[in-house]
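hiii, so i know i said id send this last week but things got crazy w the move. better late than never?? heres the sequnce for the chain we talked about at the cafe, plus the structure i predicted for it. fair warning i was half asleep when i ran it
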Amino acid sequence: MAMSVGTASGATFCDINTTPLIDVMLVLLVTLIVTLPVMTHAVKLDMPRENPPPVTVLPEIVNLDIDFDGTIVWNGTVVSGIPQLENFFRSETGKDPQPEIHLRPDRRSRYETTALVMAAAQRNHMQKMGFVNVAEFKD
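okay and structure toks below
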């Protein structure tokens, strides 16, 4: 393997070494070849051809409020305590579809009261319960 470092007259020979440039280009080419199939890979989904049946009966909504002093209000009716609340839950469990419980605790209410209400709903097999956010929570 021969290498030229200059000319016969003793002048230096300046030329750009293109080997690193070619190495970088090959690495980029290999990277492109490897990643291109991943980017074009598609997942085939078998979507249903017919529209799903419309919901004919919307569930009833029960508004359950918890005041700052621990008072529990069921759709505007003050509940005397957890046993009466459990009776309400038992009467609602058998309905089809089961009502949705919209729980709205006051921001100053104790967590213990909210936890007791949620535990009573769980004991009585209430399936749909959610917290309702209202503007009064924002300061």
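btw The CA atoms of residues 5 and 13 lie 6 Å apart. thought thatd interest u
miss u guys!!
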